[in-house]
Amino acid sequence: MKTQLEYSGRIDPEYYQKKYIRYQSLVENCRNFELKEKTDFIVGPFGSSYNTENYVPNSGYRYVRGQDVKPFVLKDDDARYMTKEDFHRLSKYALKENDILVSVVGTLGNACIVQKKDIPGIFSCKSTVLRTNEMNPYYLLSYLNSKFGHDLLLRKERGAIQKGLNLGDLHSLLVPVLTSNIQTILESMIKRSLNQLEHAKNIYKSAETTLLYELGIQTDAFPSSTISIKSFSQSLSTSGRLDAEYYQAKYDFLFHKLKQFPCKKLGGNHGIVTITKSIEPGSTAYRKQGIPFIRVGDVTKFGISEPEIFLPEDIAKDVSSLYPKKETILFSKDGSAGIAYKLEKDKKLITSGALLHLTVCNMEDVLPDYLTLVLNSPVVQLQAERDSNGAIIQHWKLSEIKNVIIPVLNKNIQKEITSKVQESFALRHQSEQFMQYSKKAVEIAIEQNEEAAIQWLKAKGI
């Protein structure tokens, strides 16, 4: 309608998709308010307020990047830190407990809540903080991650090459008014979910500790010296490498420890795994719908994020042969090299060529969950660092990956580590399920009514 066009100020057809119009109508049919009415907004520091080259080892003062903002949860497995002095200089952008971060540049519309463990910290200009003053932040979090809140925000995206949301887009987002009863239920669910996730992280950390303990490795015991004196026969004639970084003392320390245990090469003849590569279709094949296309940035050691890019069904003649199977370990060789994630079931997706597919040859010898944890541990991460040292964009050669040394501990230790890893992932799955339930409950409340949403939750055992 002409009146709708004049109200929005938008003329692009994407803005008027049937889905968006339907969602907007359903929210308007509820009691509602604009987000600016009950929320304070804080925009992150722009320009060169903080130089990312100034990252420091864990100082206790976090610098939250746009890529750290994921649905519901602020990612912390690859956290960056700043100095105490920089934190105080930028203290007007300091995070508070129960702040909601929304990503407004790059990947748009992700919303997570800040927990006590995430502070002190500063957030970047890639996100905006919503600080609620008359609303339960956990309800707002559920709404923003629901199809209504998320899609109605994405409807407002601007820009062609660099997509973004401006402050006015956030201000005008309509939020339905739900009763305190269901808001309290949602808060309880999300808090339970976050507690389970923290428990899962602790169990996984215990598995990592068990591995390093059995190998007699303490990460703080690695030599700090970058100097290691080598003869010609110990260096160039053996490795073919002239760069001094390759011969640091910490690498000598690692391999000295590994020599005390049975070890095997990761790939190649008599290796632990077979290694296959996927495809690089090129950006011309990218679609908004189709087969999920998973890139390195979509993968962590804990799972696969919802991708932004999809591929057509006819991208390959036998496209199903590209789908990774259960127990396949995805292993990154470019960008953030050395990230490993094991699939729990067959997946209809295609990975980029930067993600190798590792398949364990003999599970009687090496358990896949054990191997995945080793790949993510300092044992392999240091080998990745050594091989790619000095590169601006990290690239790990396939020939080097095949020669990675893997300690093969006795089966009982492998089973103990595997048990902890599987328990950790089971808790993560439960945590994710509660988050999905909270979104679905909000959607049912909007589409039907609150009573229907509460009954649905009861049927799920909530």
Please, could you describe this protein's structure?
The structure is a single chain. Helix content is 36%, strand content 15%. It has 462 residues and is of the alpha+beta class. The protein folds into two domains: 2-176, Alpha-Beta Complex (Adenine-n6-DNA-methyltransferase TaqI, Chain A, domain 2); 203-418, Alpha-Beta Complex (Adenine-n6-DNA-methyltransferase TaqI, Chain A, domain 2). The strands form seven sheets. It has a five-stranded mixed beta sheet with strand order 2-9-6-7-4, covered by helices on one side. Strands 12-20-17-18 form a four-stranded antiparallel beta sheet, with helices on one face. A three-stranded mixed beta sheet has the order 5-3-8, with no helix packed on it. Helix 4 (137-145) packs across helix 13 (411-447) and helix 7 (180-215) packs antiparallel against helix 13 (411-447). The longest helix has 37 residues, at 411-447. The chain is globular, with a radius of gyration of 24 Å. It starts with a helix and ends with a helix.
